[in-house]
Amino acid sequence: MRDVDQAYELNNPPVIAELLEGEIVAIDLDAGTYYSIRGRAALVFNALAAGASPAALVQAAGGDGAALMPALSEFIRRCLADNLLRPRSTAQVMSPPAPVSAWTADELTYEFYTDMQTLLGLDPVHEADQKLGWPTPAETPGT
Amino acid sequence: MNESDLAAETRRWMHGILAQCDRRAARGAHTRAWTIGPTTLRQYWYAQSRFATFARPLAHQPAAFGPTRLTIHCLVDDDGIALGQAPFRKRDLGHNRSIPGLSESRLRVLWDQDHRFVQALDLESGRGFFYVADFDLLPEWEPPIPFRNFLHWWAAAEGHVFLHAGSAGTREGGVVFLGRGGAGKSTTTLACLEAGLVTCGDDYVLVTGGEAPEVHSVYGTAKLKNGARLRPESILRRLLPSAMAVADKTLLFPAIEMPGTFANSFPLKALAILVQGGESTSIEPASALEALRAAGPSTVLQMPFGQAEGLSAIAGLARSVPSFRITLGRDLADVGATIASFVAGLVSASMQSHEAVA
């Protein structure tokens, strides 16, 4: 399969997302990081998370693929690096995405915030380093 | 083990423990119950008398004896109830020590290996247990906010929100204060009490949704960070004699000491985002999105299970009531008076709106 035909989905878990007033607030529950994805980036992210392939999105934008694809590929690369999206593991026939107006590289961006990571520190997921077994008995293989 | 096998094994394990709890309770138990919004919660405990301390933050809302929606057995080893071998392993642990493999079931389990406790709830029956291997290892934050996870699990399943927020208002309506820890939720709540408003809580409240959202009290406490720059002195003089030290905070019990300052519930009229740094206190409209950003991450990052539902429910609240930004000034009396005036305006506007519709 060509990269431009790869479909994606929201990386849930650990990421959850909500669309409100045209902006997506996404939260990575493992990292404690949250993201603000606005404007055209929110529309593109939503379409990608719904399973639209890059090729289908470019077609829905009705624009010049040579001009649109590099910015879209970079946006997807960043979303994958930040664990916001993941490739769909099974081939699915997706309905075509809703029309979206063409984008520029400057528009396909988002902000992230790490100020809530301390919340995880207050109530942490610790890696236990002693016996595995409470309430599982210690001799039971655990990992 | 696949997800359905894990759920089936966990259900069998939990129900075996709960059957032992029933037999143990039949031989004698301590019990208390409380009303929290539209639900009731009953606690049973046996040999470990320190579980009785869980009652104090909830004491302002006692429930009459009778059927309860949530029943939680608090257990220690001396109770003679064998946990047996749990069906999950360390590799099954996910966010906030929950077992995400159970998320599609109606079972909720939180397993803290370091502090050696297990919290488990079957949402179908509303029955669960809180097992503590060593009460001395229980984190300091647990007794002041007892049953937090159980209440969150129940609320998320019912479409409600166990919201990380302070609150103030009158019995006709009020606001919730949004912001991360340190934003000033507790201090603002106490300042509002000095100004004559009532509260449903300073840190966590239950919000039921629908067209007419309501705020409900959960804990009758207020926390004040030690060394706080701004302190509502006159109210502290009444509350400090019965206060407890919890980590770097002082835990106050206004619902017990000043019962008139607490409301069991009031209609939610607005979401209020707290911002520090003003010379004087000011209030201006904010977007629903700002409210979601202020309440969403700080609430759902504390949740084991149900985070997506929680975020969605908070977004629903932000859509259903207006949002405002309160910039807190340096004078607490001004903070309280400004918010009291603001709440009076919201309630008045709401009543006029209802009269116009009628």
Would you write up a description of this structure?
The complex is a heterodimer of chains A (143) and B (358). Helices cover 29% and strands 18% of the residues of chain A. With 143 residues, chain A is α+β, with helices and mostly antiparallel strands. The two termini of chain A are 35 Å apart. Chain B has 358 residues and is α+β, with helices and mostly antiparallel strands. Chain B is built from eight helices and 17 strands. In chain B, the strands form three sheets. In chain B, strands 7, 8, 9, 10, 11, 15, 16 and 17 form an eight-stranded mixed β-sheet that branches. A six-stranded mixed β-sheet of chain B has the order 1-2-3-6-5-4, sandwiched between helices. Chain B starts with a helix and ends with a helix. In chain B, 53% of the residues are buried. The chains are: A alpha+beta (143), B alpha+beta (358). The interface between A and B is large, with 36 and 44 residues.
User: What is the rounded distance between the termini of chain A?
Assistant: 35 Å
Spatial separation of the terminal alpha carbons of chain B? 59 Å
| Element-level helix/strand string of chain B | HEEEEEEHEEEHEEEHEEHEEHHEH
What value does the average pLDDT of chain B take? 90
Number of strand segments of chain A: 6
The dominant shape of chain B is globular
Query: How many H/I helical runs of chain B?
Result: 8
Shape of chain A: globular
**Quaternary organisation:** heterodimer
Structural class by helix and strand composition of chain A: alpha+beta
Q: Runs of chain B with pLDDT <50, length 5+?
A: none
Helix count of chain A equals: 4
Low-confidence stretches of chain A: 121-143
Radius of gyration of chain A, CA atoms, in whole angstroms? 19 Å
Radius of gyration of chain B: 21 Å
Strand adjacency order, main sheet of chain A: 2-3-4-6
pLDDT average of chain A, as an integer? 78
Q: Determine the strand fraction of chain A and express it as a percent band.
A: 15-25%
Helical fraction of chain A: 25-40%
